[in-house]
Amino acid sequence: MSKPSTRPNSATRRDFLKSSAVAAGAAVATQLSLPSVHAAGSDVIKVGVIGCGGRGSGAAEDVLRSAKGVTIHALGDVFKFRVDGARNHLDRLAKSDKIKELGNTVDVDGRCFVGLDAYKQVIDSGANYIILATTPGFRPTHLEAAVAAGKNIFTEKPVAVDGPGIRKVCAAYEEAQKKGLHIAAGTQRRHQAPYLETIKRIHDGAIGDLVGGQFYWNQNILWEHISELSKHPEHKAEITGDVALQIYNWYNYTWLCGDHIVEQHVHNLDVMNWAFGTHPVSAVGMGFRTRTDPNYGHIYDFFAIDFEMPKGIHTLSMCRQISNCANKIGERLVGTKGMCDVDQYTINGKRVAQREKISPYVQEHTDLIESIRTGKPLNELKNVAESTLTAIMGRMSAYTGKKVTWEQALNSQEDLMPKELTLDMSKPVDPVAIPGKTKFV
Amino acid sequence: MKRLIQFFVFGAMGMLMLARLGSPDLQVGAASRAAPPQPDAPAPNPKSYTETIPGTQVKFDMVAIPGGEFLMGSPPGEANRKDDEGPQHPVQIRPFWMGKYEVTWDEFDLFWRTKPGQKEDKEPDEPKNADAVTRPTPPYADETFKKGREGHPVLGITWHAAMQYCRWLSVKTGKQYRLPTEAEWEYACRAGTKTAYFFGDDPQKLGDYAWFADNADEKTYKVGSKKPNPWGLYDIYGNVSEWCIDRYKKDAYAGFPRDKVTLSPVLLPDLKRYPHVVRGGSWGDEAKDCRSATRFASERDWLRQDPQRPQSIWWMTDGDFVGFRLVRAVAEQDNLKKFRSRITLQSPDE
């Protein structure tokens, strides 16, 4: 009656959770007994959170759950209401049994910062572990500053929205390598046990040589916040101009979000690059938008990209955010000896790994903190920069209608971030890109 | 915090007992009781019916379930029994209707898909029209988990989302739909039987009635594609497991008398997100966890891949094995008349 233990049996998963929590605790205790190598003379991980929206608050919670000896030390965001929201959440979380058991704390009194420069204050606050979770457009600047200050970093994906941003991130990667900094990225599949097992088998030749693949993120339309604004006078009070409004509604503007191919589909493209062990050499893409509501800014609804990998191999990528359509998210690899549905953990139809027992969003912090405490190198910035540029290259091709090469994308002169940005400055919404008319810059 | 946990005990509420049923072949257990409960206003004898969701072509079937008594929980000797399934205690259930099938995406999509909700939506205590009921915000990712949409059971939704669907449907139809109480669920599942499964004690037969770990290949299937239970309910075991209205408490059954019958018990949830009762087992569960008495408790881990805080109150990133089934009381019990989910983004986990 009973089948092999490769099945994601829900009951089994529930049972596993308890034992794995114990095991995780034991592992952490072992780590703590090791000498501190890089935590600036202290075992305590002092976390500075830059970007206090849903993901920043989530990452702060995840790090509090990931290991012992963690304190949330400073918070920063463009908006005060976001900092207040994160602080309320974390203060409440700090009282929970799980966090108390780990001995972790939230101690941000006097270290809550607001405004476009809040990131500098968080970096200078005495924190030794910086979480970067703002909208993606700001990430290159924040990475550059955190690396310059010699901090260990957890950076959310994507890490840029344009070529100049990617170049900044690549420079930060090199500098971080020289300084021996530890950096993990929010491409959490690389910290997810069954993904790791499946990709290991691919690298070990389970389906022979890779000759193709398909990568999908097709889902419903996501969100806009403008129509909600009237319900939130405390939010409205801080929306002082175009830039503030667009940051509030950031998902819908390419200069902040990168478009959804960059913001979300980057996960699947990261799996592609991970499996192939390299990035594409060029892209031919198409896409557009059917949505007309101005609250949804100027981003596209859908993209389809033909990526050319080295050796003339082509892969297909699709991402769509339109409701009432066929949805699909995942990654399929095609090799000379069969196929792998990476997201299903199946190789030629056979499951090769069980679902993880620990949240990959917690695991990525556990791994980063372990690397800091043991001195084992970890720097995922190059990987995530390449995956981000893969998505940007696809977007550039779809926006312009032209074939775009890796070198062109990397060296693109299109800097989407306005100069001398202020929250109240005028910034009309960018026009919708028109394939065949929009120029590659 | 104000405690909302209440037990609805027969002894105190005898006046709510209902008339005996007219179809003796469906009556369960009552004949063995020494002192049958006194009837008050007789409830109409329910008949099965088909509902069409107004303004659409989408239909669903409701099966009449007779009132009666049963012994809730499993006996100590039952194979693979867990402690939370006892002690067994006698329970009286009043007549109701139950969904013939698990609620499908065809139905659930009408609730949210054309116009998803927004994070901070509020709703009145008594919404005048269905649009005033708060509905799911757009999910990140594919809410079907590649398990099929048309004709397949909805899954990966929270208890709150299931409760809100019932509320929306109630306003739409003018009939009070809700989740089953845990007692109603087990009563309807057993359909008068006392064995581990409604077809006996042999798990080898489960494949005739259910999609579960041994035959589901980790998929869901169109509802109603296996044999039903004796009362005509399909997929009561397997396919997806099913939300009940009750808060889960491991030793809940210890609170009931064993020597007298309890009428319509329900452990009303408070404001916390977990744990709620889940029943019936799913595509991912082994036969031992698809018994009539098996109880599951929802937990935070079912959203472990939701990276946002606060986490969604609608979608469960890792709960791709939970859906639900509707019920409708013939005469609603008092403590459920105004009961609704009060879960918000600010609600604590546990």
TL;DR?
With about 450 residues, chain A is of the alpha/beta class. Chain A has helices at about 10-35, 55-65, 80-95, 95-100, 120-125, 140-150, 165-180, 195-205, 235, 240-250, 255, 260-265, 265-275, 360-375, 380-400, 405-410, and strands at about 45-50, 70-75, 105, 110-115, 130, 150-155, 185, 210-220, 280-290, 300-310, 315-320, 330-335, 340, 345, 350, 405.
What are the salient characteristics of this protein?
heterodimer, A: 441 residues, 9-stranded mixed β-sheet, 7-stranded parallel β-sheet, 39% helix, disordered N terminus, B: 350 residues, alpha+beta, 5-stranded antiparallel β-sheet, 4-stranded mixed β-sheet, 5 helices, 11% helix
Q: Tell me, rounded to a whole number, the average pLDDT of chain A.
A: 91
Biggest β-sheet: strands ordered side by side in the sheet of chain B: 1-2-5-12-6
Helix tally of chain A? 16
Nearest-integer average pLDDT of chain B: 89
Biggest sheet character of chain B: 5 strands, antiparallel
Q: Give the class of chain A from helix and strand content and strand pairing.
A: alpha/beta
Helix content of chain B: 10-25%
- Which strand-content bin applies to the residues of chain A? 15-25%
What's the shape of chain A?
A: globular
Estimate what percentage of residues of chain B fall within beta strands. Answer: 5-15%
Distance between the termini of chain A: 62 Å
Order of strands, main sheet of chain A, comes to: 15-14-13-12-8-11-10-9-16
Question: What does the main sheet of chain A amount to?
Answer: 9 strands, mixed
Backbone CA Rg of chain B: 19 Å
Structural category of chain B is: alpha+beta
Shape of chain B: globular
The Cα radius of gyration of chain A reads 22 Å
Number of helices of chain B: 5
